[in-house]
Predict the 3D structure of the following.
Amino acid sequence: MKFISSLLIILSIVSICLSQTSSSVSSVSSSSSSSQECLPGYSGVNCTFNHNVTGYVPAYAHGGYVLFWGDFGETHDGLSVLIGGTTCSIFVAYFWMIKCYAGVLPENTFYNVTVTQNGITWFQDNYYRYQTNCVNGETLNGYCQCETGFTGELCDVESSPYINTISSSSIDGGHVIADGWFGQDPQIGTFSILIGNKKLRIVQIGSTRFSGVAPQGNGSQDITIYNSTNNQLLYTGINSFQYDSTLCYGDCFANGICNNGVCECFYPWTGPYCFEFNSCQCPQI
Ligand SMILES: *[C@@H]1O[C@H](CO)[C@@H](O)[C@H](O)[C@H]1NC(C)=O
Ligand SMILES: *[C@@H]1O[C@H](CO)[C@@H](O)[C@H](O)[C@H]1NC(C)=O
Ligand SMILES: *[C@@H]1O[C@H](CO)[C@@H](O)[C@H](O)[C@H]1NC(C)=O
Ligand SMILES: *[C@@H]1O[C@H](CO)[C@@H](O)[C@H](O)[C@H]1NC(C)=O
Ligand SMILES: *[C@@H]1O[C@H](CO)[C@@H](O)[C@H](O)[C@H]1NC(C)=O
């Protein structure tokens, strides 16, 4: 009994606190005569929620359901959606999504969108589109999202080669791997790739990755990609290659441990990269 009554006291305290919070919020809205006094995201005489649209799934060109994603709040008084000035009939509205039925809207054309509720209007020009002709990509929010290696409004233009990431090498050079875009069917001889002014030797190359052997060097160096047929410069990555003085060439060929750029070789291996076999020190068999 004692437990239940103290629980009831706690509950009533909580509800008093809650009602005080909500009355303080409503006093902000009722006393405010300008939008300045509303909480962020609210405006108008009554501090109404400012809804917005963040994305959509279009209908087919001959009509159908459209989904609009966004923040629409809990109240949808007088909700209307216009696409290109034509009513999209509301099917259902949630705080995160509005579903409406659109009539014929010819594809590949942009339409303005107006979403009105609670006396507030959200408008965006050239917003809605049912894009059907993306060549190497897919439609998202009316725009083509291109696959890697393609660009242009319809993803019909092949990108120039570029490097997104490339691994570092020791100051003595060594094996590196690069990710990016290197054309649809690149061959080892398609490009000349330079680190600083020295040539990187390509070992293997595909559309999105190549591996090769970096020359000796130090510090940060530019990477450049040339068309090896006509020597046209296709890409420059300013300071995008790093020589790391703590790395060892070939990682000591697994015959030693790289300690801050110096190979400490396992017996009987020797040499700067633990690649030489010290036969003199070999135990007699
Ligand atoms: C949409 O509204 C929400 C809530 O007011 C806000 O947090 C968000 O930043 C808005 N997004 C855009 C794109 O305006
Ligand atoms: C603000 O709220 C009052 C009282 O509910 C209502 O009469 C009035 O129409 C509202 N104004 C707007 C702009 O929504
Ligand atoms: C939106 O598009 C419709 C149809 O093209 C047009 O009549 C209307 O004026 C546009 N609204 C705005 C605000 O641009
Ligand atoms: C690093 O490169 C600079 C020129 O870029 C050169 O002067 C310097 O000697 C190099 N240092 C080493 C340790 O190789
Ligand atoms: C390189 O240049 C040749 C000759 O101009 C051209 O045919 C080829 O398409 C170019 N390759 C790349 C990858 O740009």
Notes: The first strand starts at residue 42 and ends at 43. Residues 1-35 have pLDDT under 50 and may be disordered.
